[in-house]
Amino acid sequence: MDLYPLFNSIRIALISTFVVLITGVLCAYYISKVNRVIKGFLDVIFTLPLVLPPTVVGYLILKILGPNSFIGSFMNEFFSLKFTMNWWSAVIATSIVAFPLMYRTARGAFESFNNSLSDVALTLGLSKSYIFFRIRLPYCKQGIIAGAVLSFARALGEYGATSMVAGYIPNKTATISTTVYHLWQINNDELAFKWVMLNIVISAVVLLVVNFVEDKYQRKEVKYVSYS
Amino acid sequence: MKKIISLIIIFASICATLCSCSVDKEKEELYIFAASSLTDCLSEIEDIYEAENPDIDLIFNFNSSGTLREQIDEGAQCDVFISASSTPLEKLDCASRYKIDLLENKATLVVSESNPAKIQSFEDLFNKLYNTEILLGIGNTDVPIGEYTLQIFDYYNIDVSKLNEKGVITYGSSAKEITSQVKEDLVDCAIIYETDAKIADLEIVEIADKGQCSKIIYPSSVLDISNNFDLSVAFLDFLQTSYAKMIFKKYGFTPID
């Protein structure tokens, strides 16, 4: 069994989780600062990939970044860079699909943040970046971690947009999900079953780790409360 | 509580109306499962046939022949199956009583619009696959065009697993998917049907008609599970009239007599 799809899937999922972790948290933070009309408009755009079928996302990526598009042909001509049919094309696709999960959960966490805490910090003369990184983020840690885990799981399982943008190239763009589909198509049930089991194990382990971390986090809080 | 109940009733009645809308009891429905390469010409034939037989509703399912066979095996309702190779039909459990070889097609090597790799022929393609950074789109082994492609590989003594290690081949799940990939310049070249290449207006570099692969014959058959055997036979007979043959020819197929 060639393990390239496993390596590739995890690589793609980790990088896109990192990408949406940063962009999602920043977008969630800054959207509370813009005026209401723009806020409503941006919120729809940021959440749209969650409800769109992945094939629609894949189609749009191909039309915007594909070799025949304006941006794609320009990059290809001047930097001989193609956005499609590479392993990192899948990162673009999975990041877009997973982004709303991170953005939504982070926004929820920020909205439940008690703003008087940051006001108090301001009166104590702390800088805005200090407040953001040392007060707001730690306070909202749990929501952000949950969002990141959801994004990782979503990125690991993405099929539709990935297969349109990156195809199925063995040893280059093959991921677990596209490999399972390919094996099912060519009637290689035995190998397909192995990949399915492996995928279930990975996803279960991810969820177990999350529960474990959450549990530990909560116990720590209880301990802290009992001491005080 | 009253509000919730009335909401549920409203929702259910909307669902019921929507369901009943789609049922048209006047017409006899014929389910035609056809290879994706037949999408364009059968859609044209559908309009003509339904105009001539107003009491018949043709329902098409276009996909790769291998996928269609799996769907039939798993219990999909199907009256007529037109495959792009004899293998899916032979593998089918509900063996057919009424079988006709309908059409002939050819495998071709096509290139994307600009042909940046300057591919000249099959031999040239295989040299370049080993040496340079190009990407070839082919069908997987369950898709008939993939089956024919592997025969072409064998003819030129090409080891597919070596090319897979280099990561220069992408596998599509139907002939139409591979055609779209060339059309969108996602791949540099692809091995697809001559008809698909003509419909998509792609540049054909070489036609595999020198014995590189076996003859590409489209067999058609009325299935045992058909609910409308006579109507299905009548439809297959229509596909062999000179009128239907004219349409097939227009799309680049060679009708078989």
CATH homologous superfamily assignment of the largest domain in chain B: Periplasmic binding protein-like II
Radius of gyration of chain A: 21 Å
Shape of chain A: globular
Tell me how many strands of chain B there are.
Answer: 11
Order of helices and strands of chain A: HHHHHHHHHHH
The top-level CATH class of chain A is: Mainly Alpha
| The number of domains of chain B | 2
Reading the helices and strands of chain B in chain order gives: HEHEHEHEEHEHHEHEHEEHHE
Total number of distinct structural domains of chain A: 1
- Mean pLDDT level of chain A: 89
CATH level 1 name of the largest domain in chain B: Alpha Beta
Uncertain segments of chain A: none
Walk me through what this model shows.
The complex is a heterodimer of chains A (228) and B (257). Chain A is an all-alpha fold. Chain A has a single domain, classed as MetI-like fold (Orthogonal Bundle). Chain A is 80% helix and 0% strand. In chain A, helix 1 (4-30) crosses helix 8, helix 3 packs parallel to helix 9 and helix 5 (89-111) packs antiparallel against helix 8 (141-157). The model of chain A has no long low-confidence stretch (mean pLDDT 89). In chain B, helix 2 (39-52) packs antiparallel against helix 11. In chain B, helix 2 (39-52) links the parallel strand 1 (28-35) and strand 2 (56-63). Chain B folds into 2 domains: 25-104 and 216-255, Periplasmic binding protein-like II (D-Maltodextrin-Binding Protein, domain 2); 107-207, D-Maltodextrin-Binding Protein, domain 2, CATH 3.40.190. The relative contact order of chain B is 0.19. A 6-stranded mixed beta sheet of chain B has the order 2-1-3-10-4-11. Chain B has a 5-stranded mixed beta sheet with strand order 7-6-8-5-9. Chain B starts with a helix and ends with a strand. The mean pLDDT of chain B is 88. Chain B is 44% helix and 23% strand. With 257 residues, chain B is of the alpha/beta class. Classes of the chains: A mainly alpha (228), B alpha/beta (257). Chain A binds chain B through residues 62, 66-68, 84-85, 167-173, 181-182, 185-187, and chain B through 64, 66-67, 112, 135, 137, 140-143, 164-173, 181, 184-187.
